[in-house]
């Protein structure tokens, strides 16, 4: 009889070699959500959503009339990823440390937000001096993630493109942070 060599099936590296543990602190066996890895497809979906929103805001609505839906795609992706992270933390620790969660979010988001706002205030002071008063409320609302409510309270419409409102887009971050509170 003739021996036919076979190719062994590819097996992923054991979790220890991949930098992951098979058991969380809770003692449950591996295979849970806490072992999820990077999901590259979500980056592609984010890129499509970014392009859709940019095309929509560039007033190319005839080319992509539903471009605004990119924001909803971001909400869905964020909700999925945050839920995944919180469930993984619960699997590892048998609890969720919301304070740590908020601290990680703040470390990730606030530096860029403060840099953007600082540069905007400097720009406005030099080139849009008349808008400084209105910008003050937008900055405070943006820092506290209540931009959506501030815009409703002041009657600011999102579609008023001719009005100087460079922080109007922060409504989406505010909605996302408020979602996390729920």
Describe the model.
This protein is mostly helical. The protein folds into 2 domains: 40-95; 97-182, no CATH class. Helix content is 57%, strand content 0%. It has helices at residues 40-57, 69-93, 98-127, 132-143, 147-154, 171-181. The longest helix is centred in the middle third of the chain and has 30 residues, at 98-127.
Spell out the blueprint of helices and strands.
Blueprint: H1 40-57, H2 69-93, H3 98-127, H4 132-143, H5 147-154, H6 171-181
Number of strands: 0
Range of helix content:
55-70%
Beta-strand content: under 5%
Based on helices, strands and strand pairing, what is the structural class? mainly alpha
Mean of the pLDDT scores? 78
Major β-sheet profile: none
Low-confidence stretches: 2-29
Tell me the domain tally. 2
Q: Using the alpha-carbon principal axes, give the shape.
A: globular
Computed CA radius of gyration, to the nearest angstrom:
23 Å
String of helices and strands: HHHHHH
User: Number of helical segments?
Assistant: 6
Terminal Cα span:
68 Å
Index terms:
182 residues, mainly alpha, 2 domains, globular
Structure at a glance:
This protein has 182 residues and is mostly helical. It has helices at 40-57, 69-93, 98-127, 132-143, 147-154, 171-181.
